[in-house]
């Protein structure tokens, strides 16, 4: 396949506009974010094609304002010649979908990439978050809420877990990490394009709506009142019920004010000598216990 000439200058207007998205302020202003790596880009392109989203025609402005209703479409693809030859399906998809694409040199890739060893492909995508009321409804069975979760790796891993467990949505409160942080996006391994994500809401708003829609609200917290997640029936906790799980900060857990917004607490028992579990690990246990019980 004959490829177009490569963009070799980091000062290219297209490159400079994309590089801006490495900063949170620009992501918010432009309504876009960067997706890096073959796995995540593949998921973004597949979602774009499945939803039959329009591409960005030549002459379209290089930014999409935050007031534009986002659909999570791929706006532009940057790919090295080596990566294009290894992933010909990416080139075919962007052509079929009329998505703007560029061959770039390694020097340009270094400007666009937030990783040390990039795999040669970066996509510019529209933000993909949705409204809270669109995901917490009478059909929702399992909702994952992250309250004051600050580590991007933890947030991304939990989104991946929620996707794997078949959760209906993940909600990140306004005090949590930016979902479009490059490390968060990479940590989702493409699951960001599978499970609906809500951002920028308060934990009180989430818990109130969840309860109004008939979901029980459970805090993942090892306090004196917490149920044992491995023996919930002993203390009357029903894990077959529709549930919104709330996970707190990595360092201090759930604040008392947030615990009071929940119906009950549950904790993962420690059988060995470890002081505690990593947040994402504990979240995986809780989310899967609900998913398993709801499917029994």
Automatic annotation (TrEMBL):
Entry superkingdom: Bacteria
Presence of the UniProt keyword Cell inner membrane in the record: no
TM segment ranges: none
Limits of the RNA 2-O ribose methyltransferase substrate binding domain: 34-131
Entry's Gene Ontology BP terms: methylation; RNA processing
Any one GO cellular component localisation term in the record: cytoplasm
Keyword annotations of the record: Methyltransferase, Transferase
One Pfam family named in its UniProt record: MRM3-like_sub_bind
Stored InterPro entries: Alpha/beta_knot_MTases, MRM3-like_sub_bind, Ribosomal_eL30-like_sf, rRNA_Methyltransferase, SpoU_MeTrfase, SpoU_subst-bd, tRNA_m1G_MTases_N
SMART domains, per the entry: SpoU_sub_bind
GO molecular function term, any single one: RNA binding
Similarity comment: family membership: Belongs to the class IV-like SAM-binding methyltransferase superfamily. RNA methyltransferase TrmH family.
Name of protein: RNA methyltransferase, TrmH family
């Amino acid at each position: 396949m004959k490829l177009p000439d490569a963009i070799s200058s980091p000062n290219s207007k297209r490159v400079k506009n994309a590089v801006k998205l490495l900063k949170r302020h620009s992501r918010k202003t432009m309504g876009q974010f960067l997706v890096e790596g073959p796995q995540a880009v593949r998921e973004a392109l597949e979602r774009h094609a499945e939803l039959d989203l329009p591409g960005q025609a030549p002459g379209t402005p290089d930014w999409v304002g935050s007031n534009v209703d986002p659909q999570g479409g791929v706006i532009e693809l940057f790919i090295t010649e080596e990566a294009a030859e290894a992933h010909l399906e990416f080139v075919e998809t962007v052509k079929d979908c009329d998505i703007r694409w560029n061959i770039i040199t390694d020097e340009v890739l270094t400007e666009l990439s937030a990783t040390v060893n990039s795999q040669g492909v970066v996509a510019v995508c529209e933000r993909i978050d949705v409204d809270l009321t669109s995901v917490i409804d009478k059909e929702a069975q399992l909702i994952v809420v992250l309250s004051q979760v600050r580590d991007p790796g933890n947030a991304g891993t939990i989104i991946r877990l929620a996707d794997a467990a078949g959760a209906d949505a993940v909600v990140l409160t306004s005090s949590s990490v930016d979902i479009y942080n490059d490390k968060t996006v990479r940590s989702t391994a493409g699951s960001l394009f599978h499970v609906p994500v809500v951002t920028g809401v308060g934990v009180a708003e989430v818990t109130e709506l969840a309860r109004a829609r008939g979901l029980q609200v459970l805090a993942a917290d090892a306090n004196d009142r917490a149920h044992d997640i491995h023996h919930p029936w002993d203390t009357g906790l029903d894990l077959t019920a529709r549930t919104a799980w709330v996970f707190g900060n990595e360092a201090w857990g759930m604040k008392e004010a947030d615990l009071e917004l929940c119906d009950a607490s549950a904790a993962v028992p420690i059988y060995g000598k470890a002081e505690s579990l990593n947040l994402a690990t504990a979240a995986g246990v809780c989310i899967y216990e609900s998913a398993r019980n709801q499917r029994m």
